[in-house]
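re: ur question from yesterday

yeah so i grabbed the chain u mentioned. its 114 aa long if i counted rite. heres the sequnce exactly as i have it in my notes:
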Amino acid sequence: MEGRLRNLVFTGFNKHVIALDQNTGEILWAWVSPKGSGYVSLLLTDEQHLIVSVSGYTYCLDPGTGHQRWFNELSGYGVGVASIVSYGKQSSVQPLMAAAAEDAAAASSAATPL
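ran it thru and got these structure tokens back, copy pasting raw so excuse formatting
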């Protein structure tokens, strides 16, 4: 599944969440929030959890299928644009930086005359 997620782009607007194939732009799935409207906040936490907030209503979707896993109304907290943060898995930037450092080291050693 994770390999497939690497090819997805998620977008949200006016209570809709859409998964697109990043190479073709094809819509792979679409989901509409049953409550709330307007701005959609999105957070992909891992290959099984896409957190979506719409006007104070919070949902968890399966990022591969768009299937709704859970819903929390967060009653009494108000409405508006949500800030969503998650602490967990390693950032995708760290492996990229490590790979770049390895490439730079390899290029440097290849350029050193014997």
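noticed a couple things. The chain has one domain: 2-87. also The chain has a mean pLDDT of 83.
anyway ttyl
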